[in-house]
Every structure is written in structure tokens, then in C-alpha cells.
Amino acid sequence: MYLCITYFDRIGSFADVVNILLKGIRVDLVLIGYLYTVPLLVGIWISNGKFSRFFSRILMAWLVLALVLVVYMEVVTPEFILEYDTRPNRLFIDYLIYPQEVFSMLWQGYKLAILCAACGIALASFLAKKLLSGGVLSSNAGATGTKVGFTILMILVCALVTRSSLQHRPFNPSMVYFSNDNLVNSFVLNSGYSVLYAAYNTSSEAQASDLYGRMRDDAVIASVRDGADQSGVPFESDEIPTLRTHQASYQGKAKNIVILLQESLGARYVGSLGGENLTPNLDALMEKGWRFTNAYATGTRSVRGIEAVFTGFSPGPSRSVVKLDKSQSDFFTLASFLEKHDYSTQFIYGGESHFDNMKSFFLGNGVEDIQDLTKFTNPKFVGSWGASDQDLYEEAHKQFLALNKRSQPFFSLVFSTSNHSPWEFPDSCPASFTGDRASRENAVRYADCALGEFIRKAEKSDYWKDTVFLIIADHDSRVTGSNLVPIDRFRIPALILGGGIEAKTDNRLVSQIDFPTTILSLAGVSGKHPLIGFDLTKEVAANKQRAMLQYGENFSWLGVDHAVILRPQLPPKVYTHDGSHLLSELDAGGYSEEIVHARGNALWSNLAYAKGLYRLPD
């Protein structure tokens, strides 16, 4: 009820509030069935004696812990929604495996929420023990026949409650979803169920393609090849279906490649892209290089952004390949490709590179050297997520000066951290901070200031003229919105700078996955690879321009004037859009080919990962 009141403007009507509450009772019963069926059935058969008292204590602990966890999840839900615009889900699980970084962030920025959670847990523990101490666990005498009958009855009742359906399939969230707003749909669930369901899906990710309907492998591959075809260059392999020979536009000496991946920098913060005027340095740089006005991220997390710009891999409902087991080696990345072209390869990060499994993924896929916080020399400022962006860029500048003295070109992925909750940064950058210093807006201002300082220093260096720089965001911050896919929260800045890069504005619809192919072309690196992104140095027909957006379990194939939305176990939808929002819903029956095409590309990531189809040839 609290969430319905707080977000009533998103819900829209009292009828929908009633709908949420009634369906919410159904979900609550499902969770109760999952948590309490086993202890209730066991409790029926516990008899008096020492042995029974031992098991009674175990069951008591189970029941109390279950109630405590349910209460805890609801207490932390409001803060989670503020950050991610949905109930706790898979993201909650992902962050649990990095307690040092997460608890440091929580303590710095969410002390009130921690206090409320602690009080809620203490109260729940006390009440649970009081309520349960005189219940079923202490009153279990009875004839065996009575127990058998009661057990059968309880099995039937618990099975009905847990399945919550007489249909072929048991309950799943799509059965109670009714809104085009993902946040509103999540209100129907409770956070305990949401996290348990996410954990179940995570454990069976190989079958994630079932969300959108099945297609034959050859049909999936045909869709991907058709979508990636730019100039008729033939695909060359059945074992690596997207392998082809890419001819670079630049034919001179191979250039260095540097990707400056910006944390949580959505287009809405960039003045030159129509957003808030928080990035004067980036806005000035936009006038000096090749700027893209309609670039879109593939997802909502950093590992998804890394996946897109470092591997060129398309998004899907599973986790990013950065975190999946089968992609920890022999998976295509820019580093693995450039390594074969005599590049030195490097990753520079202000935090600790083990976070989000980055270190394992990078070292297993072509990165020779990792410079993270543990290797930085006397950083001047270290916050919850690591060294400040100024420290990061200072280290990067030192590395580039040293690498440039070698006889081989270098590749470096530099990943910033300062623009992240709880927004900790030093006073050493002369940005115009306003209001509460520890705010997202001021963190953006600081990150922009640090970026501007670095580029000015790089422009004066010996390595500038021989380097292609890509400045691009990993994702927007707090991707929220009432649409099935909030398109405006996927729009990001993208800019290419460096020696020989002409200043121009590019208004084409482009995706993060287009940039790996493009920077290889600008750097003069030709060869065979499985990238499906377009080479933006060349023409891309309007009907071929697209972006792929993964928003939770919703997938959008975004074209120039319409978007196909795939939803888990629900019919596809098609909308017109204006680049920021979904507008009018169209008759999906008139877009059957586009829907098949979108589904094929949505399933490609699962297929390619599971069967090892995205790699370099032996």
C-alpha cells in the first residue's frame, strides 16, 4: 500500500490500485507456500521427546528466518526502487557477491535505510518467535490416521497455493502483469518472491530464450546476418556464423585505440544533446570530433556496456557475458582481435578489477595488463568505488606515455567510477557545484571536469596524433520510465576524437555495438572477426539502422520510426516512437517479418554463447 500511495501518479487510478492489491495477495500466498510448505508438513509428524525438540528448534529457526527475510526485503525496497525503478530483482543478487563495495556505498549514502532495515529485522524476529512458539510446532499430538489425513489435505492445499494455477504452467509473474509500466507491474509482486524468481531464472539461464518463443538455429542466424549486412560482404563460416572479412577505411599505419567508458552518463545530462547543462567540457569536445546524437546503450548496467563496446556482442535476457562461465575464455573481444595484430592490450580501472568478474573476463580474453586501484601510485582521493576520475586519468596518461614509446600500437579500455552513488569526489577539479555536494548532478560535473582535464593534457602529448579516442557511456543512471522500454533512458553520448578525426555531427540511429567495428576501421585494422555492428565510417541505409535495448526481461528492436517490444511469455508489441518515448501502438499483425527479425536477434546472444559461436577462428 505504501508503494501504491507513493507512486500513485505512475499507477493512474484507484481501480488499478485495487487490482495491484488483489493480485498482490495471490503472489503473497505463493511466497508463503514456497517458504512454509516443508516446515508445516514436517511439523505435523514431530512427536514429543528430545529428538522432536531438536527438530522443532530447526523448524522454528526456519520459520523465523523466513519471516525476517520477507520483512527485510520489503524494508529495503523503497531505496532500491529509487535507484533502479523496480523491486529488488536480479540486480540485488548480483550485488550480494561484492559485499565490500556495496556495504561501503550503503554506509556512505543510505544510513537511514540501514537503520530502518535493522529495526524491521529486530521487530520481525521478536514477533515471529512469539507467534510461532505456541503454534503448530508445540502442538502436534494426534492419532496416526489423523496425521495422515491432515498431511494429505495440507499437501493439496499447499500445492494449490504454491502453483496458484490449474493451468499447465504454474504461476509466473506474467500472469499478474497488467500495465505497460514495469514499475507498476513489480508492485504486484512482493520483493521476496521477486528475488527468489530472479535467482531461479539465473540458475537456468541457458533456457532464457524461452522467454520470447523458440526459433530454429538457422532462422536465428539468418535474422542476425540480415540485420548485420551493410555492404554485401559475405559471411564465411558455419562454425562462426557472423565471421567475415572487414576492410578498414583508414589504410595507414595502425593507430592506438583508447575507449574512455563513462559511468552512468545518460544523454539527459549532456547539454549538447538537449539535456541538462552539466557537461561543459564534453560539450566543447563535441565540437572538435565526430559526435553522435542518436546513440543508444544496450542495457542498464556497466557489464552490459562493457559487453557492447568491448566485445560488440548483442544483449539478451541473460546476464552479460562478462559474468557468464563459458565466455571467460575463447570469446571474441577487441583485445583478443588486436592482440593478434601485434597490439599491446590494457584495462585501466579506478576500483578493484575483480568487481563484476571483470578481471577474470579480461585476462581470459586478450587483455595483457590490468591497472586497477591496487596498482595505482599514491592516488590522491579514494572513495567507496575506488580512486577518483582524476587519479584514473593521471594513471592512464602515464601508461599511454610509456606505451607510446614502444614499437607497437596499444589498446586501452579506461573505465571511470566517480559518477556513482554515493557520489564521492575530491575538491581538486574546478567544476561549478550546486546544492548538496554529494548529488548525482555534482558527480556528473566532477566527472566531466576530470575528463576535460585529461583530454587537454592528451592533446598536447606525443600519443594524441596516433590515437583514436572513443568517449562513450556504459549506460544512463537510474533507467526508469512508464513505457515497456524507456527509450530516452538508453540514449547516451558518444564521441570519437584524435589525430585525423574530422569534426562532424552524425544523426544516424546507432548502437553501442556499432562502435567496435567503427574504431577498428578508423585505426586501420582489417581482418576476420564476428562483429555484427556497422562500420559507421561507411553508409548505413535508413531501413538498416537499429538499436537493441534490453530492459529487464523486455527486449526492444528499435528502428528509425518504430520499435518492436518482446516480452516474456507474452505477445510482442509494436509502437511508433520519437527517439525518447513509445507513442502509438501499431497492429502487430502488420509487422510479422519485423517481429521474427527482432526475435532472432534477441535469441542470438543465447545461441552464440551456449554453442561457442562468437569467437575468432583457430
UniProtKB/TrEMBL annotation:
Predominant localisation class: membrane
Residues where substrate binds: H420
EC number: 2.7.8.-
Gene3D superfamilies in alphabetical order: 3.30.1120.80, Alkaline Phosphatase, subunit A
Segments passing through the bilayer: 29-47, 54-73, 109-128, 148-166
Membrane topology recorded in Swiss-Prot or TrEMBL: Multi-pass membrane protein
UniProt keyword terms in alphabetical order: Cell membrane, Manganese, Membrane, Metal-binding, Transferase, Transmembrane, Transmembrane helix
Name of the top EC class for this enzyme: transferase
Listed GO MF terms: metal ion binding; transferase activity
Keyword Cell membrane set for record: yes
Name of a matching Pfam family: Sulfatase
Domain Sulfatase N-terminal per the UniProt entry, residue ranges: 255-525
Subcellular location: Cell membrane
Entry superkingdom: Bacteria
GO cellular component, one term: plasma membrane
Active site: S302
InterPro entries, A to Z: Alkaline_phosphatase_core_sf, LtaS-like, OpgB/LTA_synthase_biosynth, Sulfatase_N
Keyword Magnesium carried by entry: no
Residues at which Mn(2+) binds: E263, D474, H475
SUPFAM superfamilies linked: Alkaline phosphatase-like
Protein name per Swiss-Prot or TrEMBL: LTA synthase family protein
Native organism: Microbulbifer pacificus
